[in-house]
Amino acid sequence: MTDFWKLLFAWTLLSAGKGWSDSPAEFTVMAYNVENLFDVDRVSPYDDYIETPGDLNSYGPSKLARKLKTIATVLKSVGEGKGPDVVILNELELDHTAESTVPDISEFLKKYSETTYEKMLSSELNDELRGLPAEIWLLKALEDEGLKGYTIVVGETPAAGDKHQDAITNGLLTRFPIVSKKTWETASARGILETKLQVGDATFTVMGNHWKSGAGNPVMENKRLGNAKTVRDRLDQILQEDPKSDVILGGDFNTQYNQGQRYSYMTKTAIQDVLGSQGDATMFQGEGKPDLYNLWFDVSPEQRFSDEYNGEWGTLIQMLVTRGLADGKGVDYVPGSFRQLRVPGVNSRDPLGLPWRWTNYGPGWGASDHFPVLATFRVGGEASSSGEALPKTSLPQKEAVKVGFDQIDRSKLRSASVLKDASSEELAKAMGEYFMVEGTLSKIRPLEIDVDGKPYSLHSYDKNLKDAIRVMAKGSQVKFVGELGLYKGKLQFVIRDPSWIK
């Protein structure tokens, strides 16, 4: 046997072992709200992200470095360290120092290839580096952390944006060639970032969303109706040109996948009534509308969550697909692959597995107030006429899933006494942790408790709970479960559930 045939035979065996001969290529798409990834140019519409000399709790270079490290750690938990191939990003700071724009990113990365983002944000930091946009810091950090090959697209600034539109924007990380990109302006929210990508011989479109906030607020829902119409109008244009276009819609929609059921007082919803989100998978084999499928319906109801608010799980981070993503041509969604991404100890914390929110306290700690969601797609799959290759058909839940504040095992909680001599880093890491708190009620208005000689504010989002505490006499000894937090620069304990004071 000649050397050529030996090599060919070996390659054939290797291919068969890896399944290359009978499995199409697959890739992963993620939607990730990184919770205010800001640069360090000291220019920001948000006071919390302006560096203030002498204020140890203000934002700064070391906190940016820590945020970048955490983002990279979350991404590296996908694909055996390779990371997702496409990432829809929410809450990237819009650059406010245009003179520091990087015209050639590859040249920039080459120039700084002999150093690290951590050194650049510490011992090597200068005025030129301070001016770098957040997305450049992100790319540099990902390169240094071994997540290579990304290109980044950033949404354009609206012509007359308000504070939130002018502060943060959407972005897209991709390892695939970019065919086209455009930002569609939408009222009271970040522009919709549309990017067309090439994978092999196929193309697909990603539409990055970050709609107006306030999921349960009817006034805000009226604004989101406009956000949804912007997306729906553009999607109709795409599907009119090709009804089987492969389009992925993702990001922070600031609305629940079951918005109409969860908030029955809303007569019309943006995500369901205007955009057309739904969970009947037979639409993949039909024509006309409905023409979108929300991937949360491909997950068991008790696993539908990406965020928490007032003790209830939410699904603000979503991903929707058009019927072209199940036709066996071009790009297809892999049924059953959609999920939220929880990395214990990094972006998810015990005992309830809630998102580990970022805090600027001390040296900073945490990840984001949302879990990323991700799904797998394949190139060149085969459609199934029997429906076996389709996602699940499911109905929206009528009620929210509770996170389980009343299920906490008190025996596993640390005593708040450990905080008395804690370092700033230990306190930063403890933000959001639940403690057994024993102390003296030292003030009634505002509520304050003394624990081992250290004062803490006392708060509850439940007015009835606050009133129940206020009927106690000043100087009373109290014992409860409290969540450590920070309010107006002062440490506080938050009581999140009536069971916490029993």
TrEMBL record:
SUPFAM superfamilies in the record: DNase I-like (SSF56219)
Database matches in InterPro entries: Endo/exonu/phosph_ase_sf, Endo/exonuclease/phosphatase
One Pfam family linked to the record: Exo_endo_phos_3
Alphabetized Gene3D superfamilies for the sequence: Endonuclease/exonuclease/phosphatase
Domain Endonuclease/exonuclease/phosphatase: 28-102, 187-375
Transmembrane segments: none
Molecular function terms, GO-annotated: catalytic activity
PANTHER family reported in the protein's UniProt record: ENDONUCLEASE/EXONUCLEASE/PHOSPHATASE FAMILY PROTEIN (AFU_ORTHOLOGUE AFUA_3G09210), ENDONUCLEASE_EXONUCLEASE_PHOSPHATASE FAMILY PROTEIN (AFU_ORTHOLOGUE AFUA_3G09210)
Name under which the protein is recorded: Endonuclease/exonuclease/phosphatase domain-containing protein
Annotated organism of origin: Verrucomicrobia subdivision 6 bacterium BACL9 MAG-120820-bin42
Taxonomy of the source species: Bacteria, Pseudomonadati, Verrucomicrobiota, Verrucomicrobiia, Verrucomicrobiales
